[in-house]
């Protein structure tokens, strides 16, 4: 992750949307030092204003199109991906399916799946749990890094 602190000169094309797949998000564009960036996304509906100073987290150095989140120096708010949406739904559905198939024999019902399928669904259960843990860890790590880097920039402390 690469961090850069910039002042947003102009914001344009802000659209607030909500879908069942991703939840609340905003699409927008902004101009920094005379260069325009289009089609950016922010999770939830954060304030996006001209003149704000942000510390941006970029997946690729000096490429604002790879924006992953930011720290707003004026408000101290961290805007980053949210682990909600389709990922949570998919994980919960896998967990429920695995619990049903593996749990029915324990309740006295005959298993409708052969033993190999039960092991496969058990592996899916473990994989889903690991995936959920990894997703949540990435979310928390990005927020913590953004907050730390943004605070260093905001209060004039040099970081390594």
Describe the secondary structure blueprint for this structure.
Blueprint: E1 2-7, E2 10-19, E3 23-32, E4 35-43, E5 53-58, E6 67-72, E7 78-79, H1 86-103, H2 115-154
Antiparallel strand pairs: 1-5, 2-3, 3-4, 5-6, 6-7
Helix pairs in contact: 1-2
Characterization of this structure:
By secondary structure, the chain is α+β, with helices and mostly antiparallel strands. The chain has a domain at 2-80. It is 36% helix and 31% strand. It has two helices and seven strands, in the order E-E-E-E-E-E-E-H-H. The protein has helices at residues 86-103, 115-154; strands at residues 2-7, 10-19, 23-32, 35-43, 53-58, 67-72, 78-79. It has a four-stranded antiparallel beta sheet with strand order 1-5-6-7, with helices on one face. The chain has a three-stranded antiparallel beta sheet with strand order 2-3-4, with no helix packed on it. A hairpin with a 2-residue loop joins strand 3 (23-32) and strand 4. Helix 1 packs antiparallel against helix 2 (115-154). The protein is elongated and about 65 Å long. The two termini are 14 Å apart. The model has no long low-confidence stretch (mean pLDDT 76).
């Amino acid at each position: 992750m690469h961090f850069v602190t910039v002042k947003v000169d102009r914001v344009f094309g802000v659209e607030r949307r909500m879908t069942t797949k991703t939840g609340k998000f905003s699409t927008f564009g902004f101009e920094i030092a005379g260069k325009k960036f289009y089609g950016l996304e922010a999770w939830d509906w954060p304030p996006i204003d001209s003149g704000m100073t942000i510390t941006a987290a970029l997946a690729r150095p000096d490429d604002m199109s790879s924006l992953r989140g930011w720290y707003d120096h004026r408000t101290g708010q961290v805007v980053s991906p949210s682990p909600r949406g389709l990922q949570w739904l998919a994980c919960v559905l896998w967990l429920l399916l695995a619990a049903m198939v593996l749990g029915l024999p324990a309740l006295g019902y005959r298993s409708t799946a052969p033993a190999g399928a039960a092991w496969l669904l058990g592996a899916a259960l473990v994989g889903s749990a690991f995936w959920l843990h990894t997703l949540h860890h990435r979310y928390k790590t990005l927020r913590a890094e953004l907050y730390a880097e943004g605070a260093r920039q905001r209060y004039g402390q040099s970081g390594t």
